[in-house]
């Protein structure tokens, strides 16, 4: 008793295309052909297809099945698969925990659950900048950022003037706001010296610094960006004294 390709596929619970693919990648030997030229499959072929399908359903790649040949118990591949599944389960469990927090807090998804509630009252620009910080900063600076956001007192009143600064603010107003913000910025610099560290950035220090500079210029209006530049110059000058 032999079977055609279609019959073999039906018996194995698969389809003709899959059986042909097994042939193409060297997983299944070509059967003999009948006098009519059609392939005739036997029990050995059915067993082989069933074993390939079982291993594939478990998650073992066809390339690894091919490497093992007729091995019915690919121990190494199974151990590798088990380790990969354990890592996947751990990742999915972590994601579910984050989703539970997000759903409970009703916060946005672009920041980790521990940061999202803290930034809920931020201006749109501050929050967007924090999203970018969370991506480009390395562990050292991120630890400082979290510490600053979770332990610092309410923002300095001078930041309210900065947040409300119109893009067409005149020179005198810009300088006044810069003078008000500088002491607060210096305090943060002293309290959290690693906040501006980019040496361990996941995207590299140069790209991280470039991304942060571009974000400041794009997210804040012209007057606010000018104030930030003035504050930065004041801090740099103080360090040289």
Summarize the structure in words.
The protein has 241 residues and is mainly alpha-helical. It has 3 domains: 5-71, Multidrug-efflux Transporter Regulator, Chain: A, Domain 2; 74-106; 109-240, no CATH class. The chain has helices spanning 5-12, 16-24, 43-58, 62-68, 75-105, 124-136, 139-151, 158-163, 171-191, 205-219, 222-240. Helix 1 (5-12) packs across helix 3 and helix 9 crosses helix 11. The longest helix is centred in the middle third of the chain and has 31 residues, at 75-105. It is rod-shaped. The N and C termini lie far apart (95 Å). The mean pLDDT is 88.
Radius of gyration: 31 Å
Please give the oligomerization state of what you see. Answer: single chain
The SSE string, one letter per element, is HHHHHHHHHHH
For the residues shown, what is the average pLDDT? 88
Q: Choose one word for the global shape.
A: rod-shaped
The separation of the N and C termini measures 95 Å
Task: Give the strand content.
Answer: under 5%
Query: Helicity level, as a percent range?
Result: 55-70%
Number of helices: 11
Structural class call reads mainly alpha
How many domains? 3
What is the strand tally? 0
Major sheet description: none
Low-pLDDT sequence parts: none
Any descriptors?
Multidrug-efflux Transporter Regulator, Chain: A, Domain 2, 3 domains, 11 helices, 0% strand, DNA-binding transcription factor activity, MerR-type_HTH_dom, MerR family transcriptional regulator, DNA binding
